Amino acid sequence: MSNNPVHILHAVKTFLSRFPLHVFLLPVFFIASKYNQYAGLLELTTVSGAWLLVTLILFVLSFVLHFFWRSFQKSVAVITCLAFGFLFFGDLRISLQNSNFLHFLSAYKFLLPVLALVYILLLVHIGKRKTVDGLTQYLNLFLLLVCSVEAIKIIIHNKNYRTQDETELVTSVLNDNIKKQLPDIYYIVPDAYPSTSYQKEVLQTDNTSFDDSLTSKGFRVLANSTSNYNRTVFSMLGTFNMDYLYWLNHEREISSKDFNRSMQEINNARLFRLL
């Protein structure tokens, strides 16, 4: 085999033009993007199973379509394009909804006909061509690029992911008599519910009856409670971990990763381990 860079590039181009790697790369991109979007909430077994299922479905559909197109390369290209729209339809619609100029296209009466027209034109174009080397090459290169970007995101996230330093918790063995005397603990967090003093001062609403009902049942109601964070999940993690969230960067926009990490760490907070 020649080591000439030109020959190597030609061989790579030929390989990417003829072999439809995209049918395997699309599930990788889809799963990796969702793994990044919901970072901290998805288990590796769940991600692996979902990737395997999506890959298997696309491969079977490509094999079935092969009997109609008589070209496996065309069949795989069609399935990949159709699957791309199906898997990322929700992301596309949300992006259009958030757009200042194209938000009207997010309505189903516009979006669905437009997508149908695009796919009809795509099918006609593929059907008229003897080969789809150009489309195969484009899909391979595009998905290799976006998969690389998602892989870099995963590496950066895992590198920056630092659980808070664990403190030594004093543990003791309690006998059964003492355990029976221990009370049940109920911690009530009225989400998005202002304190009674705030309601009385700002909203001109007297809701002391709610506090009184809790007090009468033995609850301790904090009269002048405050929070270090403006999101419930961050406040709860700070309370249950008995510490500040040092990893939370207030100078940048809060992302879904921050919410997901907080929800994950709440399940293993220091207070619960202490109890």
Largest sheet descriptor: none
Helix content: 55-70%
Q: If you average the pLDDT, what whole number results?
A: 82
* Molecular shape: elongated
Number of strands: 0
Oligomeric state, counting identical vs distinct chains: single chain
SSE topology string: HHHHHHHHHHHHH
Rg (CA only): 28 Å
What is the first-to-last residue Cα distance?
Answer: 67 Å
Total helices: the number is: 13
Query: Would you tell me the structural class of the helices and strands?
Result: mainly alpha
| Beta-strand content estimate | under 5%
Low-confidence stretches: 163-167
Q: In terms of topology, how is this protein built?
A:
Layout: H1 5-18, H2 22-37, H3 44-69, H4 72-87, H5 89-97, H6 108-128, H7 133-160, H8 176-181, H9 196-201, H10 208-216, H11 232-241, H12 256-266, H13 270-274
Structure description:
- With 275 residues, the chain is mainly alpha-helical.
- It has 13 helices and no strands.
- It has helices spanning 5-18, 22-37, 44-69, 72-87, 89-97, 108-128, 133-160, 176-181, 196-201, 208-216, 232-241, 256-266, 270-274.
- The longest helix has 28 residues, at 133-160.
- The protein is elongated, with a radius of gyration of 28 Å.
